[in-house]
């Protein structure tokens, strides 16, 4: 089992770009691993943002695709998320998670809260 | 996009009782592509069930999943105090968005 740790600025101004990092530690990584970003506005439900594979394939939620970029480093142990043109509606707890097959999110980080405010 | 509708929104029960939570998909979902999560305040979601009925590692057998057509059910046979939480269902599809979640059911005492 891996451990996931998200980090980010906590507070972002409207129209700015959010940058978050997820560090993957422990366990062994597989070529079949996929890594997702998921967010949860305070007191609300979960929204899948997108995913990246071990090999670098990427899928985004169409609702966010125009503003979102997911990437990873060569080691596969640092997953990044960028969200452009942030608004108050993007205020949420942002999680990274590992997807496995059959499709499910097996491991989650503890999440990082991002507030959009001037 | 497949929409998952969970019911009820809130379920009020007592320890020892049986809980039945529903998740209805707006269109056909492969049984293998439906999962359930438990989320407690201040914590990340925890995987309970995948493949509609397979318990994740370490999940007690009082948790069970079933399905009929587009209707999926999470049953907790005898509620323990630690089971009071919010429960989400999640599906995977080949069309975007690949993953969607239900809006959640709050299980309260």
Describe the structure.
The complex is a heterodimer of chains A (118) and B (109). Chain A has 118 residues and is mostly beta strands. Chain A has no helices and eleven strands. In chain A, strand 9 (92-100) and strand 10 form a beta hairpin. The mean pLDDT of chain A is 94. By secondary structure, chain B is mainly β. Chain B contains no helices and eleven strands. The mean pLDDT of chain B is 94.
Q: How are the SSEs placed, and which strands pair?
A:
The complex is a heterodimer of chains A (118) and B (109).
Chain A: E1 3-7, E2 11-12, E3 18-25, E4 34-40, E5 47-53, E6 58-60, E7 68-72, E8 78-83, E9 92-100, E10 104-108, E11 112-116
Chain B: E1 4-7, E2 10-12, E3 19-25, E4 34-39, E5 46-50, E6 54-55, E7 63-68, E8 71-76, E9 86-92, E10 99-101, E11 105-108
Parallel strand pairs in B: 2-11
Antiparallel strand pairs in B: 1-3, 3-8, 4-5, 4-9, 5-6, 7-8, 9-10, 9-11
């Amino acid at each position: 089992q891996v451990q996931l740790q998200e980090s980010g600025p906590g507070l972002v101004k409207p129209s700015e770009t959010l940058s978050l990092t997820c560090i993957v530690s422990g366990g062994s990584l597989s070529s079949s691993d996929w890594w997702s970003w998921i967010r949860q506005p305070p007191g609300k439900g979960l929204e899948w943002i997108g995913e990246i594979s071990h090999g670098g394939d990427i899928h985004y939620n169409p609702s966010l695709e125009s503003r979102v970029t997911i990437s990873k480093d060569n080691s596969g142990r640092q997953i990044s998320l960028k969200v452009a043109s942030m608004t108050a509606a993007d205020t949420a707890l942002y999680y990274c998670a590992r997807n496995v097959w059959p499709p499910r999110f097996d491991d989650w980080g503890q999440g990082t809260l991002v507030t959009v405010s001037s | 996009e497949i929409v998952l509708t969970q019911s009820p929104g809130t379920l009020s029960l007592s320890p020892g009782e049986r809980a039945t939570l529903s998740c209805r998909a707006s269109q056909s979902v492969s049984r293998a592509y439906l999962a359930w999560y438990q989320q407690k305040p201040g914590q990340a979601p925890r995987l309970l069930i995948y493949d509609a009925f397979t318990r994740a590692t370490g999940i007690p057998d009082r948790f069970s999943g079933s399905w009929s057509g587009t209707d999926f059910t999470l049953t907790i046979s005898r509620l323990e105090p630690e089971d009071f939480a919010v429960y989400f269902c999640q599906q995977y599809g080949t069309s975007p968005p690949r993953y969607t979640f239900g809006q959640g059911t709050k299980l309260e005492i």
